[in-house]
Design a protein that fits this description.
Radius of gyration: 54 Å
Distance between the termini: 179 Å
Order of helices and strands: HHHHEEEHEEEEEE
Helix content: 25-40%
Largest sheet: 5 strands, mixed
Strand content: 15-25%
Strand order of the largest sheet: 1-2-3-4-6
Number of helices: 5
């Protein structure tokens, strides 16, 4: 009898064990199958996040720092560079000095002699003492007398062998003796109406000067 009970209990235990085993296995398989699906969902979400970051307008916007903005403003405020051509147009002054109480003279590298200031030019006793003739009598090609000068002194441009032109302003009232004597390349001179006196030999031996107009206001003309 006891043996029958033991056998019966054994069968019941086996039956109970068999009923429990399939459920546990099924649950384990279900959980195992669900894990790949969850992993796939997680990977898809990560890929969508990366794509959103790549296409986001905010990620492509560049931010200008204060230092970069300052550098841009400084670059805009910088003055335009001076070209070599502009610099080369300014002729260098080779010599200068005075030629009257309030008159000065300058000679540039191009041979342009400029007289500026106010009042009378010095009346020199000889061409040998004229300041620009001592060293530059063969270098002067043009003379510009600026407005304010009232007279052209004696011997002022005597024997300037390369002088071709002269500008005399309306402020000049007199031209001294031998002022332009022996200037063989001087081709023309315009004497303004303000001139009233022309000294002796003022244009003597100017071989290229074929004609000259003397204004009606001239009241005194020296010897040939």
């Amino acid at each position: 009898m006891r043996q029958i009970k033991r056998i019966t209990s054994l069968f019941l235990s086996l039956a109970l064990l068999l009923t429990m085993l399939p459920g546990t296995a099924w649950a384990t398989e279900t959980e195992t199958e669900a894990l790949p699906e969850e992993a796939a969902v997680t990977e898809d979400a990560a890929e969508e996040t990366d794509e959103a970051q790549e296409t986001s307008p905010e990620s492509s916007v560049s931010v200008e720092t204060d230092d970069e903005a300052s550098e841009t403003e400084v670059a805009e405020d910088e003055p335009a560079a001076v070209s070599e051509e502009d610099i080369s147009t300014v002729s260098e002054i080779v010599d200068s000095g005075t030629c009257g109480d309030d008159l000065t003279w300058t000679l540039d590298e191009d041979g342009v002699l400029t007289i500026s200031g106010t009042g009378d030019m010095t009346d020199w006793s000889s061409y040998e003492v004229v300041p620009w003739l001592a060293s530059y009598w063969t270098s002067i090609v043009s003379v510009t007398i600026e407005n304010g000068v009232t007279s052209i002194g004696k011997w002022a441009f005597y024997d300037c062998t390369k002088l071709t032109s002269v500008t005399i302003p309306d402020s000049v009232t007199s031209i001294g003796r031998d002022a332009f004597g022996s200037c063989p390349k001087l081709t023309s001179v315009t004497i303004p109406d303000s001139v009233t006196s022309i000294g002796n030999y003022a244009f003597n031996n100017c071989r290229s000067l074929t004609s000259i107009t003397i204004p009606d206001g001239v009241t005194s003309i020296g010897s040939y």
